[in-house]
Design brief:
With 71 residues, the protein is mainly alpha-helical. It has 4 helices and no strands. It has one domain. Helix 1 packs antiparallel against helix 2. The longest helix is centred in the middle third of the chain and has 19 residues.
């Protein structure tokens, strides 16, 4: 199983089970993103994290295919 498949499965599980924690899917995803960014910052420097975020945000409305992320 690829890292992308594991991530997609995690997101699906959070969204499906959000109600059990008194949250909606968006709230669970926000918590996941915030927690993941903190963990990434602990692994990499702040410039890396900022560049990663900037890249991902700039890609939101762009139609492109990233083969790794589709798996």
């Amino acid at each position: 199983m690829s890292k992308w498949s594991v991530a997609k499965e995690t997101v699906a599980n959070l969204s499906e089970n959000a109600g059990e924690y008194g949250a909606d899917a968006a709230g669970m995803l926000e918590a996941l993103i915030s927690t993941a960014l903190g963990a990434l910052a602990a692994e990499k420097d702040s410039d890396y994290v900022k560049n990663f975020i900037d890249y991902e945000v700039s890609s939101i409305n762009v139609q492109h295919i990233d083969v790794q992320r589709l798996t």
